[in-house]
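testing teh design pipeline on a random one, pls ignore if ur not involved
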């Protein structure tokens, strides 16, 4: 009798015991990689939990890596036939990943070119190749002018500068040095390998009236007119003539401004989350000052692509996750939590977000924020940084240095397009 009861119990339990195993087999796991930025990592973890609750058949494994080793990690993993299903990339890295076959075109079902161009910020089209999109961002960023309200008030200023000329004049007056001539407060931060190289091209070139690249992105035009030379001269004069800031002062531009040792700093909207987290700095943000009636800002973004080796159920799951990450709901959360602006044009029209005095200037700059076409972002950045160093450290003529820099930039473009 006992044996019979045991048999009956097992007969009833076995089907129930088998259910979790069957369900586990139905679950698809995909990997998502990004570089480590504390606020982004925390938010992605929250978003993954929400996505998994809404999609019980999909699990998302989230991995993050230090920025300095992120590209190397991607390269070695892809070469070994491993790596993630979805990777978060700086938009300036995308051209080389497309050319090398690392990425596959976005699924047309959710991300047709027509849909992207109708619903997303225009700058996203910088990553369109032969009519095809390979990546899609959750948010975009523009550069703005951060200013320390207390330092401005100490010098009698009731408003931040509206033009480049006003910005230089104010920066000179607010720069503070001790008796030995050592810098104590920067009037305007000067960090070429920070945001300054991006500020030069395309923002400063556009402000002076010079296009940075030809329409087909195949020719560097930095020195194509006198306006280009004037823009580079203006940039180097900040350090050599006006002496309003120094390279690596207090480690970098972000640290100097956050610690109240800089009156003004050109930086991206993503800096808001760190400054708000500190909660002690009395600061404001305005659009990049204009020049001779021209307005400009630098539009950048981190963007999500699906690796070429992802297929079948993993590809379907990746498409769903990307659709979730680029939904209007997620973008609005991203905007308020991270400080980057949701990539859909509808976010830029959100009246609630426009009431935020820190976010509003960045949203205001979206219509005239240009992205720069990088074929190798790290190499292109090094060209600008080296050019500035040649003027600052070696006393070279800015005009000659700009000619050299354009030659180096053109070589990069030629190598990519040939």
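output:
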């Amino acid at each position: 009798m006992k044996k019979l009861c045991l048999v009956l119990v097992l007969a009833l339990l076995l089907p129930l015991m088998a259910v979790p195993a069957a369900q586990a087999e139905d679950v698809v796991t995909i990997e998502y990689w990004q570089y480590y930025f504390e606020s982004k990592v925390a938010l992605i973890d929250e978003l993954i939990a929400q996505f998994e609750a809404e999609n019980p058949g999909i699990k998302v494994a989230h991995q993050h890596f230090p920025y300095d080793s992120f590209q190397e990690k991607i390269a070695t993993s892809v070469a070994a036939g491993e790596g993630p299903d979805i990777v978060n990339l700086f938009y300036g890295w995308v051209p080389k990943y497309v050319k090398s076959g690392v990425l596959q075109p976005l699924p047309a079902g959710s991300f047709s070119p027509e849909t992207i161009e109708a619903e997303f910020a225009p700058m996203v089209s910088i990553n369109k190749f032969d009519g095809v999109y390979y990546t899609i961002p959750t948010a975009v960023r523009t550069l703005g002018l951060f200013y320390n309200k207390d330092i401005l008030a100490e010098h009698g200023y009731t408003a931040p500068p509206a033009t480049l000329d006003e910005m230089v004049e104010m920066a000179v007056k607010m720069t503070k040095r001790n008796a030995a001539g050592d810098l104590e407060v920067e009037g305007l931060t000067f960090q070429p390998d920070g945001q300054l190289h991006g500020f030069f091209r395309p923002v400063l070139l556009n402000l002076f009236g010079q296009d940075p690249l030809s329409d087909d992105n195949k020719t560097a035009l930095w020195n194509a007119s006198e306006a280009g030379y004037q823009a580079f001269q203006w940039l180097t004069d900040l350090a050599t003539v006006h002496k309003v800031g120094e390279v690596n002062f207090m480690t970098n531009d972000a640290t100097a401004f956050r610690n109240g040792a800089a009156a003004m700093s050109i930086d991206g909207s993503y800096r808001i989350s760190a400054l708000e987290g500190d909660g002690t700095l009395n600061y404001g943000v305005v659009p990049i000052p204009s020049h001779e009636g021209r307005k400009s800002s630098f539009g950048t973004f981190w963007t999500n692509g699906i690796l070429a080796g992802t297929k079948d159920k993993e590809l379907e799951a990746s498409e769903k996750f990307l659709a979730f990450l680029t939904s209007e709901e997620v973008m609005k959360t991203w905007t308020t939590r991270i400080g980057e602006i949701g990539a859909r044009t509808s976010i830029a029209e959100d009246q609630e977000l426009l009431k935020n005095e820190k976010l509003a200037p960045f949203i205001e700059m979206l219509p005239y924020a240009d992205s720069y076409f990088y074929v190798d972002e790290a190499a292109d950045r090094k060209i600008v940084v080296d050019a500035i160093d040649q003027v600052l450290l070696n006393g070279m003529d800015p005009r000659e240095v700009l000619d050299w820099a354009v030659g180096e930039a053109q070589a990069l473009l030629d190598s990519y397009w040939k």
